[in-house]
Amino acid sequence: MKKLLGCALALMMLTACGSKDEGGNSAAKETKKCTVAMSGMDIEFNVTGADDTAETIEIVYTLPLKSMGATEDVIANITQEQLDEIGKQAMKQQGIKEGDGIDAKFKLEDSNLVMTMTVDLKEGNADALESSFGIKGDQKISEIVAGMEAGGATCK
Predict the structure, then answer these.
(1) pLDDT tens digits for 95-152?
(2) Is the pTM of this model over 0.85?
(3) Exposed, middle or buried, 73 (CB in 10 Å: 0-12/13-18/19+)?
(4) Which of the 8 DSSP states describes residue 111?
(5) Residues whose CB falls within 8 Å of the CB of residue 105, separated by 6 or more in sequence, listed in order
(6) Where do the H-state alpha helices sit in 50-121?
(7) For residues 49 and 76, is the Cβ–Cβ distance under 8 A?
């Protein structure tokens, strides 16, 4: 699981280019959705912001537990507490700490572990976001999308 999350986070970190937005009136919020399949896992990135400045990035990892050797019986008996522990351990292995602008949720859907991390780029602790995701300064939605597409993601 560490390798899978590492690949996904490496893609995210490739997009971490600092830039400044040159002010102006706030436009309506926009969301760009990028998807990629990596090492048997589906990853969805939802980048939301206004005026091409990213405010939040929601990263949804969908990992089929059967591909990791889990049986239907094991999957049917996983508790929320166990899901939370699996998810927190996966985050810890990647050096990601919940809090300071990073919110994580873990759930089971159709025999898949679904981990959703929401990164708040405006309110988050800059040091924590940099150490967890390599994010520095303001992020342009267009730059994030271009980096994801260059890494093999499909964006709309």
Answers:
(1) 777 777 888 999 999 889 899 999 888 887 777 777 766 666 578 899 889 988 998 9
(2) no
(3) exposed
(4) T
(5) 115, 116
(6) 72-76, 80-93
(7) no
